[in-house]
Design brief:
CATH superfamily of the largest domain: Vaccinia Virus protein VP39
CATH architecture of the largest domain: 3-Layer(aba) Sandwich
Strand content: 15-25%
Number of helices: 19
Order of helices and strands: HHHHHHHHHHEHEEHEHEHEHEHEHHEHEE
Largest sheet: 7 strands, mixed
Oligomer: single chain
Length: 394
């Protein structure tokens, strides 16, 4: 595919996403239909689509458009990258149609981004600007700006199989460049040949696992000891279960309201050389643990550079639903903490209503719990936005 044809494909996909179709679903549908597209084409189109979604407001403004569209986003992107728009929007086969006089005039008359409102400059929903400032203070702008960029790919070194130096060497032997990340001692950032990871021996033999560095750092703050009984209450795919099992010789149990989310966990655990026991609701009833981790469903506002369409779908009503669900999950998880045990609460959100406010609500409702620490990781630090709190049951 030519560069112009890739942009036309991105325009069509973006129009589907803007009409309400999930980005991953739209990309998969296009890839299945476009059998002529090679792996390089698919990767390039995906990058264009995600870049357009991350910078939806600013690119629309650069194009001088009143509303976002696939065409406006790719027009704005060409302007932002200093690309000659006539080389993209042209009469070539499979290219976007040439720009109209009205499109050219609108872009020429558009104010510079520096003169645009803050939400446009930072590509952030206006209604979430104040909550971000309240949650992150002086770091809010940097956190929002970081969400406009592509996320790095991080690996977690499985300490049961290797140390960081050995893992880096094993990856390098297969042409994959990785470097230590300062966010966590087990975290590596991939700097070369990301696409090779899942077929590498280092990955298949369990030396490394894909996991964001902020998530690794949060797990690193948990008090784990050999022999502990640990419950991952909202386990999902089990990434944190595996990370905890690699840190200490403890018994890790995984539970999720939707057991299907854990379907890949047995294979991942076997590859990692550890044992994770899955529990359903009936098996969990009445049991208590030394540590219970509740990684609650959330807005995902700390991960919006990975799922940028979610940034524009969230509204106040959905956020209120999530906050109510988080309070319910936290209260349910707390019931499984033994006296003297710990409750860890995590989200990939940056918003206080999903983080500190939830912990304060639990302590107010259950005075036997004492807050020990709270920490928020910003996307500006390199990894995803993430929150962790640790409470003790006295």
């Amino acid at each position: 595919m030519t560069p112009a044809a890739r942009i036309q494909a991105a325009i069509e996909i973006l129009d589907g996403v803007l009409a309400g179709r999930p980005a991953e679903q739209a990309l998969t549908g296009w890839a299945r239909a476009a059998r002529f597209a090679g792996s390089g084409d698919r990767a390039a189109v995906r990058d264009l689509v995600f870049d357009g979604l991350r910078r939806r407001r600013s690119l629309t403004a650069l194009a001088g458009a009143a509303e976002p569209s696939g065409r406006a986003l790719m027009h704005g992107r060409a302007i932002s990258e200093g690309i000659d728009t006539d080389r993209i929007f042209c009469d070539m086969a499979h290219a976007p149609a040439p720009l109209s006089d009205s499109e050219r005039n609108a872009a020429a008359q558009a104010p510079d981004l520096a003169a645009q409102p803050e939400g446009v400059r930072l590509d952030w929903p206006d209604w979430l600007l104040t909550p971000m400032r309240l949650a992150m203070g002086g770091g809010a702008a940097a956190a929002m700006a970081a969400q406009r960029e592509r996320a790095p790919v991080f690996l977690r070194v499985n300490l049961r199989r290797a140390d960081p130096a050995r893992a880096i060497g094993a990856l390098a032997a297969e042409g994959i460049g990785a470097e230590p990340s300062g966010l966590a001692g087990t975290a590596l950032v991939v700097v070369e040949n990301v696409s090779k990871i899942k077929m590498s021996r280092a990955y298949l033999d369990g030396l490394v696992e894909l996991q964001d560095a902020s998530s690794q750092a949060a797990v690193g703050l948990l008090p784990l000891a050999d022999g502990d009984q640990i419950l991952d209450y909202c386990a999902g795919g089990g990434g944190k279960s595996l990370a905890m099992a690699a840190r200490a010789r403890c018994d890790v149990f995984a539970h999720d309201a939707d057991r299907a989310r854990m379907r890949d966990l047995p294979g991942r655990a076997k590859r990692a050389g550890c044992r994770i026991t899955q529990l359903d609701g009936a098996e969990l009833k009445g049991r208590v643990f030394d540590l219970v981790l509740a990684d609650a469903p959330c807005s995902g506002s700390g991960t919006w550079r990975r799922t940028p369409d979610a940034k524009w779908r969230l509204d106040a009503a959905r956020l209120a639903e999530l906050c109510a669900l988080q309070a319910e999950v936290l209260r349910a998880a707390a019931a499984h903490v033994r006296a003297g045990g710990h409750l860890a609460y995590m989200t990939c959100s940056l918003l206080a209503c999903e983080n500190e406010d939830q912990c304060a609500g639990l302590v107010a409702a259950l005075p036997s719990f004492r807050l020990r620490l709270e920490r928020r990781f910003s996307p500006a630090d390199g990894g995803d936005g993430f929150f962790v709190a640790l409470l003790t049951r006295e």
